[in-house]
Amino acid sequence: MTLPDDLRHDVQALWDYHDMRHELRPADVGIGLGSHDLGVATCAAELFHAGTFPLVVFTGANAPTTVERFPRGEAVHYREHALDLGVPDDAILVETEARNTGDNITLTRALLESRGIEVGSVVLISRPYQQRRAYATCRKLWPGVDVICASRPLPLDDYVASIGDVNRVITMLVGDTQRITVYAERGFAVAQDIPDSVAEAYDRLVQAGFRERLLPQDW
Q: Using alpha carbons only, how large is the chain's radius of gyration in Å?
């Protein structure tokens, strides 16, 4: 599975835009955001073993794109994968109700508060192209916490190969780019600047037909 040459420049532009390029540093909690990508749990386990945080919360129920792969729920499967990778059970919490990124943040925050766990800093672990949206959402819904974003450090081509579906990666990139603007307008996230080069790449990919993950215009 490789990117078509005629799309590569625009896809790479979106890919680079969503990478927040945060420098990792120790945090109180790692939060693995549910999705179709089991690499989120892999990254969380690696960061835990590196001593980046002492506790990880996996959060996520199911979406139409994940129910077949993770029938018991995203967070449950993430936890099982992390256990297989050597993360101890007592270092993992699971939140199984979240159905969007806003839920991921608010329900994880509530879970930690219910356990009496004080949190000043978090590492949000997501798919690479979800970093910017996750950051903007957390800044809106949990403004007092220090936010660091992380993903598996894969180049675009390697990530496409790991997912095994070029169209899926492109449509998700396009959908996440749209959501940066729409979610800020709706009050779900803080506003993020979108460079002209990124906006133009997004428009070309929409015109090329990658609309599956777009929100309706009147949403």
A: 17
